[in-house]
């Protein structure tokens, strides 16, 4: 049995270099995150410093969008927000933190692999149940046809 996934909508293409300034509402539309969440990410240190326009409005770049995409992947792993913030802090400290960043990602990878194993076991149970009901349905149909 194959598992079908709904494809994600295509991500809008980035703007040309030098024109990659997005408002918070544009970033919210592109990422699916709320403006409140984007502000919170900035407040807790998960986002790097976001430039501001002369009127004080946040202006995100393509690099910021790429970071948010990565943060989204980390969220999908189930990584705690505190660990995501720790990773962001390590990233800002530079190359000297490669080892610590790798360890954090390796631990997350182990957690993901464990969850994948649990999901595979669950999928096997579902497949057995589906097969049971498919076979039972065929038997019932055969019996109904034979008694007519």
Q: How many strands in all? A: 2
Order of helices and strands: HHEEHHH
- What is the percentage of strand-forming residues? under 5%
The helix count comes to 5
**Overall shape:** elongated
Helix/sheet category: mainly alpha
Task: Give the averaged pLDDT, no decimals.
Answer: 88
First-last Cα distance: 33 Å
Walk across the major sheet and give the strand order. Answer: 1-2
Radius of gyration: 23 Å
Helix % is 55-70%
Oligomer: single chain
Low-confidence runs of at least 5 consecutive residues: none
Main beta sheet:
2 strands, antiparallel
Top keywords for this entry?
148 residues, elongated, 5 helices, mainly alpha
Describe this protein's structure.
Strand 1 (51-52) and strand 2 (58-59) form a beta hairpin. The protein is an all-alpha fold and 148 residues long. The protein has 5 helices and 2 strands; from the N terminus they run H-H-E-E-H-H-H. The longest helix has 49 residues, at 98-146. A two-stranded antiparallel sheet has the order 1-2. It starts with 23 loop residues before the first helix and ends with a helix. Helix content is 65%, strand content 3%.
